[in-house]
Predict the structure.
Amino acid sequence: MEYLNRELRRGSIELIILKLLIGEEMYGYQIMSTIEERAGGLFEIAEGTLYPVLYRLEDRGFIESYRDNPKRGVPRKYYRVTENGKVYLRDLLDEWKKFSAIMESLLNEGKVEK
Amino acid sequence: MSLKEQFIAEVERKIIGPRELKERLIGDLHAHFVEGAESGESEATVIRKLGSSDDIAAEFMANIRLNYAGFWIRFVAHIIDMIVILIPVVIFGLTFVLSVRTRAFATVDHQVIANHPAATPLIILLIVVFAISTGAIGILYFPVLEGLYGQTLGKRLLGLRVVREGGIAIGLKEAFLRRISLYLKILPIDALFIPFNEKKQRAFDMVAKTVVIYDKRTVSTDP
């Protein structure tokens, strides 16, 4: 059960991160603050576990990172979505919508509507 | 050490993998704290929101593929460890023999007799200390070293490491559990399990949920 939850969460976290980054290029801490802001009440995310998710997206080429040159001193690592990432996001969204539709159907009437 | 340093060190201790990947996470964690400070958050708050070091380590290790070590190399490591354990025994034995030779004690009909009245209780004391310490070494060498460092001398020399199934560092509990077969003298039977499962675990590895891996040969699961 623990394993399933973790996998489900991982999949939805990737979706959330990509959707956020499409809207605006952000650095790690910013991504986490935004998520917490918008969904923090609903579910507790251990922010530290988001970094390896970012790395997985980056290592697979769906997002890329770059350093900006701020006036403040320490360069920040920003992330943005790549072209491959946009395709991946579209697939994830598709899957998510199908998944929700099926769940809805199953939970309501016990029959899967095509 | 500040809370932040302690926390980051904790995470660093629990993860293994290629150096650049570890450095990436540690670097980002440091930067995260800087950002938190700039937003006015205390280190304690940042730590609370980051989650437990175990969870972070587990998520990091999910991207790492472990390289399991097989029977023969573990066997050799074990031999080396046995030799290491025997060294104090040999030293003590030699000392004893040498002191007989130098007439501190004398032997008559294979009975050790003392040349000096105070020597008898001393001999007995030395033998007891010897028995206890070699016994202690025999019992504690493996679990203490593996529990604290993940490696005994033999394993370290051969580049092996004991970790939990997910790749995270083990503690004393797992270290003692996996040694039960050694204490019960059934280690050879236990070791027979190694070639027959994917993670190359002994039966007691499965009990303790530990695996033995090649320390330097972990790779990322991504291309």
Summary: Residues 70 and 76 of chain A are 8 Å apart (CA to CA). The first strand of chain A starts at residue 26 and ends at 27. The radius of gyration of chain A is 16 Å.
